[in-house]
Amino acid sequence: MHNPIRILSIDDEPDIRYALKAIFDFEGWNALMAPDVPVGLKLFQQYEPDLVLIDYHLPNVNGIEGVRRLRNLSSTVPILVFTIDESQEVANRFLEAGATDFALKPIKAPDLISRIHLHIRLLESERAPDTLENLPLAKGIGLPTLHRIMEFFQGQKTFLTVNQVADSTGFAYQTTYRYLQYMVSVGLAEICNTYGKIGRPKQGYRLKSQAHRENHLRHAPEW
Question: Nearest Cα to 144, choosing from 112, 118, 116?
Fold first, then answer.
């Protein structure tokens, strides 16, 4: 980890790059700016940034392919995706390519700064427990993020919605939803549908009991 933190931003809009540099300068972080993926890859190899921000819609090489190429250079660097598209389908494609989390446009400086701090802390934190290291991880699932969400659920007895978990952990909604679905699929969590007077039922999530989780993990399928 560099001191100060070194952040690479890949975005083809000059106004966005200018705004990001102003935010990073204010925080005392070193800003590396690239207008496209090829330039971003060169800067990444030259300066080894601590975190990467990348836009979805980029010229020549789009953001998804850019994430894939960045991930080939580093398996651990946090990669946050800037996008105005909030669909879960797009989010899943980014996560499967190797993205870590999302930041929505238009830029909100406090939210962006908070999310960057979150992922830097996760990168610096101790490794995940052995029980999680033995999990068969699906594409787009990383141990630091999974560990953070699991930690949040410890002691929570009620079912919580995706929004509640996202707001409390600091991750984007799409990232949180993807991880909760994975946790259900491997037996770490369970779902409960709650019905109001109108509208669709809301899904709530909570951890399964420790004994139930350990038993399920012993028989978890390979991804």
Answer: 118
3-state class of 192 per DSSP? strand
Residue 148 belongs to domain with CATH number: 1.10.10.10
Q: How far is CA 96 from CA 25, 31, 33, 93, 135, in A?
A: 31, 27, 25, 5, 17
**Residue that the structure tokens 């410890």 belong to:** 154
Q: How far is CA 71 from CA 18, 64, 129, in A?
A: 25, 11, 24
| Cα atoms found within 13 Å of the Cα of residue 61, Cβ hemisphere only | 17
74, amino acid identity: S
The pTM of this model reads: 0.85
Domain carrying residue 176: 132-218
The model's pLDDT over 173-206, given as tens digits with 9 standing for 90+, comes to 999 999 999 999 988 999 998 766 666 678 899 9
| 55 DSSP β-pair partners | 82
